[in-house]
Amino acid sequence: MAYNPRSSKCKLIRKEVIDVLQSERGVIFGKYEVIRANVDENAKRLAKVLCDGDLVISAGGDGTATMVLNAVILSKKKVRMAVLPYGNFNDLARELRCRNVLQVLESDKIGQTKRLFPLEMKCDGKHFRYAACYFTLGMFAESTEAFNEKKTREKLKKGKKGMIFSAKVLFLWWLARRKKGFLPESVKVNGRNYTHISDIMAVNSKTVAKCMRGDAKMAFLKGEFLGVVGKMDRLWEILRFMSKSMLKMVPGEKMGKMKVEFDKPTRLMVQAEGEYEWKKCERIEISKVENPVEVVVY
Questions:
Q1: How wide is the angle at C-alpha 126 spanned by C-alphas 122 and 128, nearest 5°?
Q2: What is the pTM of this model?
Q3: Contact, 249 vs 215, CB < 8 A?
């Protein structure tokens, strides 16, 4: 299993996951402790130790789950993965519905799995990262920093994780930064020209950061995902977008590939399920992988 020994829920993970696995008969158990490095470095390290037939369990939030997903794909081994919810939003764990490690072991024993088709992002033709649930570019990507602020993290630790709290954090962050240009003035998406947009999203899950709704079946379908191009530089635009996203579904269209092009190399924030990074590129491509990942569900 993989976990972050520095996370706020580390003690709970030790009690509810590690101690249980160590006492379970017939289970050969190993730990991977996330090091102080980025998602990609941890994924490469974990991938090297995975073997055919392994079940790798992510005990943490979406960042840990993303790291494990990337490790499984990079390993090119016949490996199953499971996700336990020990983070703030747990979008992937919500898809798979396993709430504790005994449920994971029970489901895996009877072969209760699904084929998950993650997204892949390429920057200027080079692989960047895999993501099970979503990628975002622009404002929402940058807003991830708001959830890493000390006061917000303290509230998250105390259980404030609902859609209303998430929407409030995002809205207050937007009020302070709404005049900033998050994306270039002109952007081309799948050959269509857009001007003055703030966000581009590829959604492959039933929730995005717990405050927006996607399609619950999307992650398990081959080829298609939900593409979103948003303009939220005015109050009424962001309120309309967030209302639709929370009550119905993120407003967008189904597509098999998303190609984002800029007039020149552009520095922008890219986010994959809570893990964000600045990238400089001229072209971004997002599509689904051909070979699915076997995930344990409950």
A1: 55
A2: 0.92
A3: yes
